[in-house]
Amino acid sequence: MPTDMPLTEILIFAAGVAAAGVVSGLLAGIFGIGGGAVLVPVFYQAMGPLGIDEAVRMHVAVGSSLALIVPTSLRSFQGHHARGAVDMELLRSFLVPVPAGVVVATLIAASISSEGLRLIFALIALAVGLRLAFNRESWRLGNTIPGNPWRAVIGFLIGLFSTLMGIGGGVMNNTFMSLYGRQMHQAVATSSGVGVLIAIPGTIGYVWAGWGDPLLPVASTGYVNWIAVGLIFPITVLVTPFGVRIAHAMKRRHLEIAFGSFLLFVSARFFLSLYG
Fold first, then answer.
1. Residues 6+ apart with CB under 8 A from 40
2. What residues form the membrane-spanning segments (predicted)?
3. Alpha-carbon Rg of the chain, whole angstroms?
4. Cα first-last separation, the chain
């Protein structure tokens, strides 16, 4: 990271990253996610003025987001598990397929371009944003979560796409469970555990995928930048429990609409960066 940046730009960057940490920590508790849907676009935009090469900027944003999801997901899972809200049977059935999807995603990340990674993020954010913004309680595929092999396939896809996006899988697992009649609170709680299954192997994978890249910014191990992680880590750990309390105390429809709108905005920004 360049050392000749004006102090005001450094302070603005730090303030923006800190604000993203607060939002991502709250989202981790409220939605059972690691906040990556917020962190990745913020990291990507913030690293531009810092002179970080476009070829690795999206990869570093995704890898650093996954590293931050480790503590937020662990903290969120601990809070929800203490309340007895986690579907441990479903989580145990994901122990192999979700990390398997993560491994495949890191192999893809090792060879895909920054443009390709942004396109994947934009497409998935568009689909998830539309689903959240226009969600209806009546949208159901059934009343019982399917068993294997379909459950394993779904777990694999959750791990795959979440790792490519740098998110904890909460939004996708929430959608999966709610489409089969599960209460949102249980879906949120279980998603925090899914985030742990994604974030730990995903972080290791992005470290491996970017190892030795000469374009990496200072203080990076592979595609994980420890300056970004160090700024946000303490904030998210402190804020996540408040998100858990909010999740168990309020209606979620307005939050779904707001989060869906945010994802649609981010998707549009990435599409413009690719084709604008």
1. 58, 61, 62, 65, 121, 165, 166, 167
2. 12-44, 56-74, 94-110, 117-134, 154-176, 188-211, 223-244, 256-275
3. 18
4. 27
The residue among 36, 26, 34, 29 whose CA lies nearest residue 80 is 29
Helix (H) or strand (E) holding 238: helix 226-247
Question: In angstroms, rounded to a whole number, what is the distance separating the alpha carbons of residues 195 and 273?
Answer: 28
Cα distance between residue 236 and residue 221, in whole Å: 21
pTM > 0.70: yes or no: yes
Give the list of residues 6+ apart from residue 89 with CB closer than 8 angstroms, or none.
none
Query: Which CA distances in Å does 60 have to 53, 132, 245?
Result: 10, 27, 31
In residues, how long is the chain?
276
Give the pLDDT confidence of 249-276 residue by residue, as tens digits. 766 677 677 777 878 888 898 898 888 6
Residue 120: CA count within 13 A, CB half-sphere: 21
Quote the pLDDT of residue 113: 92
* Single-letter residue type at 1: M
Question: Residues 94, 196: contact at Cβ < 8 Å?
Answer: no
Q: Do residues 162 and 191 lie in contact, with contact meaning Cβ atoms separated by under 8 Å?
A: no
